[in-house]
Amino acid sequence: MSYFAITSNQARHIQFLNTLRMHLPIDQIIVVPKENRDKNFTKQERRFWPRASGIGSMYLMCNKSHLKDDLVLTSLRRKKPKVGFIFGAPLLPKEIYSIPEYGCVNIHTGLVQHYRGVDSSYWAIYEENFDKIGTTLHYIDSSIDGGDIIDQDTVKVVETDTPDKLFFKTCQLGFVMLIDNLQSIINNDVDRKRLNHRGKLFQTKDMNSDIMKEINLTCKDKIKRFLNENNS
Predict the structure, then answer these.
(1) Domains plus CATH for the chain?
(2) Are 130 and 115 in contact (CB under 8 A)?
(3) Alpha-carbon distance 200 to 136, whole Å?
(4) Nearest Cα to Cα of residue 50 among 78, 105, 12
């Protein structure tokens, strides 16, 4: 059977590919590059996944606007894939997510009934909802992070966590969750759960430097308050 992956080029995305390829042969990889965030974030990310280096030689690099190009679509259709695995990719057009026989599976670093779109863990910190920091494994449809749920879980919050580390934890949880459900996904026998309530949708434009600064400045105190309330 044939499978493809669509992801990006940062350490977390490489870790996603490495994890997936340890358990499944991936015939095609499409990489949509992201710009590096600030140097501190990149340094922390590489420290979190120290072995995540190098995508490999067999992949197609393209930007968001080229995902509908005939070259991309023809390449993906050629091998008649069963499943597409997605992490860190832009919103996919139907021309792509409808190609695999069993659909496309996405790792969303948030709980979709609370936070959809981007920066979910950061918004949960901002709103002091530490019990809502987690990950959703779901199928892709025409909505934004609204497809049928395969699995979902929250991360464990500890006193030494930072906003970035909590985000990295949601990524890593997604990789574990994907492997735990992999056989059901490729055999198309997933117990799919419909999302009955869609959480807030956050876009890149919603985040700004002032909000991120507040998140970083207040995170430590908010975590202490959350842990005290839950341990009392």
Answers:
(1) 3-231 (3.40.50.170)
(2) no
(3) 15
(4) 12
102-118: buried (b, 16+ CB within 10 Å) or exposed (e) per residue?
bbbbbbbbbbbbbbbbb
Helix and strand tally (H, E) in the chain? 8, 9
> What pLDDT, in 10s, does the model give residues 21-43?
999 999 999 999 988 778 899 99
Sheet holding 3-7, edge to edge: 60-61, 28-31, 3-7, 83-86, 104-108, 134-139, 149-154
- What are the pLDDT digits (tens) for 82-140? 999 999 999 999 999 999 999 999 999 999 999 999 999 999 999 999 999 999 999 99
Amino acid code (one letter) for 128:
E
Confidence label for 57 from pLDDT (cuts 50, 70 and 90): low
Q: Which residues of 72-96 are buried (b: 16+ CB within 10 A; e: fewer)?
A: beeebeeeebbbbbbbbbeebeeeb
DSSP class of 35: -
For residue 153, the 8-state DSSP code is E
Kindly state the helix (H) or strand (E) to which residue 70 belongs, with its residue range: helix 70-78
Question: Residues 137-177: pLDDT tens digits?
Answer: 999 999 999 999 999 999 999 999 999 999 999 999 999 99
